[in-house]
């Protein structure tokens, strides 16, 4: 064997008796921490998000080292395709009745929590038919603060998600609610809820998803991590799975590349250990699996209005 490998016998036996180097020992320590972060992310986290979790926990390492250790251990996150931005500037659209002005201007940032929120609706395919999901996200923390599900894409869908976000965080007067020009967001019902809460409506251009790119990115994340990898027989099954995912995403926070690591006040899990958060997710899944009968879909949609453990901010 030594002749085939072109090494000396002395060198081979010296290699066998040599203790692990400090670099190898550090790799083993990092592999344990990376494995815990991957378990926290339910297998969805790639190297950038795992690196952000390690930095949040105070672990000193590099992103390339994390990627190498994940590759050596066969750990990989969920990937998704990216749409190409068309060339040229966005074409101006004809004015629409009931549309609000664009108060965001593709500036996906805020000075603090509950200053600007973004909303959108997506579709979930089941064997029973479509299930519609409305989501509201706080742009400062990239945290989902409200959501709602329904078999009909009516104004109540977006209104329930907004009411959940208001009840959970109670935004100050002047908070911006940015969305597209969907009929649900220009409805009188949603406008009345915004006026009662002192929220300012904002809408991007027609047929320009880049004006709401933050929500489009979040919806792509939800589809890649929760929807596309599964086949749902019924709407109730899909609603329960999405509800569990939303609760998990609310606890850990949506780790955005622009944030690198979540701000302490907006991340309740920043002060918890990885094992504690994993136990919460496991107990939530086990309690859900012991349910004798799935509730009706309308109940699932209304159940989402119940707030999970309160967070700071």
What does this 3D model show about the protein?
With 313 residues, the protein is of the alpha/beta class. It has two domains: 9-72, no CATH class; 116-303, Ribonuclease H-like superfamily/Ribonuclease H (Nucleotidyltransferase, domain 5), CATH 3.30.420.10. The chain contains eleven helices and five strands; from the N terminus they run αααααβββαβαβαααα. It has a five-stranded mixed β-sheet with strand order 3-2-1-4-5, with helices on both faces. The protein is elongated and about 85 Å long.
Secondary-structure element pattern, one letter each: HHHHHEEEHEHEHHHH
Q: Could you state the CATH homologous superfamily of the largest domain?
A: Ribonuclease H-like superfamily/Ribonuclease H
Give the CATH level 1 class of the largest domain: Alpha Beta
Number of strands: 5
Mean pLDDT: 76
The helix content, as a percent range, equals 40-55%
Structural class: alpha/beta
Q: Low-confidence spans: pLDDT under 50, at least 5 residues?
A: 257-313
* CATH architecture title of the largest domain: 2-Layer Sandwich
- How widely separated are the two ends? 64 Å
Neighbour order of strands in the largest sheet: 3-2-1-4-5
Which strand-content bin applies to the residues? 5-15%
* Whole-number count of domains: 2
Number of helices: 11
Shape: elongated
CATH topology of the largest domain, by name, is Nucleotidyltransferase, domain 5
How big is the Rg? 23 Å
Largest sheet: 5 strands, mixed
């Amino acid at each position: 064997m030594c002749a085939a490998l072109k090494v000396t016998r002395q060198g081979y036996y010296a290699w066998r008796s040599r203790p692990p180097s400090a670099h190898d020992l550090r790799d083993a320590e990092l592999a344990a921490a990376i494995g815990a972060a991957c378990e926290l992310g339910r297998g969805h986290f790639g190297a950038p998000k795992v690196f952000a979790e390690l930095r949040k926990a105070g672990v000193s390492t590099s992103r390339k080292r994390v990627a190498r250790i994940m590759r050596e251990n066969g750990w990989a996150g969920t990937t998704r395709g990216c749409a190409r931005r068309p060339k040229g500037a966005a074409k101006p659209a004809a004015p629409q009745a009931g549309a609000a002005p664009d108060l965001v201007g593709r500036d996906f940032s805020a000075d603090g929590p509950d200053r600007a929120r973004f909303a959108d609706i997506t579709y979930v395919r089941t064997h029973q038919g479509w299930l519609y999901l409305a989501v509201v996200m706080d742009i400062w923390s990239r945290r989902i603060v409200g959501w709602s599900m329904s078999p009909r894409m009516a104004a109540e869908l977006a209104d329930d998600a907004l009411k959940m976000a208001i009840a959970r965080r109670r935004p100050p007067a002047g908070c911006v609610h940015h969305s597209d020009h969907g009929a649900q967001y220009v409805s009188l019902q949603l406008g009345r809820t915004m006026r009662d809460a002192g929220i300012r409506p904002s809408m991007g251009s027609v047929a320009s998803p880049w004006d709401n790119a933050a929500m489009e990115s979040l919806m792509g994340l939800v589809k890649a991590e929760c929807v596309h990898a599964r086949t749902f027989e019924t709407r109730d099954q899909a609603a329960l799975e999405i509800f569990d995912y939303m609760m998990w995403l609310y606890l850990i926070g949506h780790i955005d590349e622009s944030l690198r690591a979540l701000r302490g006040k907006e991340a309740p899990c920043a002060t918890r250990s990885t094992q504690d958060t994993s136990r919460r997710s496991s107990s939530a899944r086990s309690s859900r699996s012991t349910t004798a009968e799935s509730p009706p879909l309308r109940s699932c949609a209304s159940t989402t209005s119940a707030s999970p453990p309160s967070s700071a901010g």
